[in-house]
Write a structure and sequence with these properties.
By secondary structure, this protein is mainly α. Helix content is 60%, strand content 0%. The protein is built from seven helices and no strands.
């Protein structure tokens, strides 16, 4: 619901702002003609705007560019290329190995009932363990 609201407000900006479509937006035929002539400025504007819309193709292209820039920087500083990346997605909560490891950590911390919830595929328990052991995307150690 929130994402739809963000998309609608940003889309409205794109439509009404003179720097993008302006008051007299081009027709589909005009846009096709521009692209046939090699003018992809409209498409570039769309990509630029969509970069801020989480989950869009442009968003992920931007994140890829950030990662490549980070790698280039560290190679340029003489640190060498990265040798290990860990990427967790929303599917992380369904990895049986991760659930077992977190259950072991919970048991070691004395949280036996919570460990059992993890083994029983309790999603809420998985999320709280991920936060407790700093595995969430926002709280991931750098």
């Amino acid at each position: 619901m929130l994402q739809r609201h963000v998309n609608n407000t940003q889309g409205n900006y794109f439509y009404k702002n003179d720097n993008f479509l302006g008051r007299n937006p081009p027709t589909v035929e005009q846009l096709q003609q521009q692209m046939r002539k090699g003018d992809f400025s409209y498409l570039g504007k769309l990509r630029y705007l969509a970069k801020g819309i989480r989950g869009s193709d442009s968003f992920w292209r931007g994140k890829t560019a950030e990662l490549e820039s980070w790698i280039d920087y560290h190679i340029g500083m003489g640190h060498g290329p990265p040798t290990h990346f860990t990427t967790l997605s929303c599917a992380e909560n369904w990895w049986p190995d991760l659930r077992r490891l977190l259950a072991d950590l919970e048991r070691q911390a004395g949280n036996h009932s919570h460990a059992q919830l993890l083994l029983d595929d309790d999603f809420k328990a998985m999320c709280s363990s991920a936060k407790r052991f700093n595995l969430s995307a926002r709280g991931a150690p750098s």
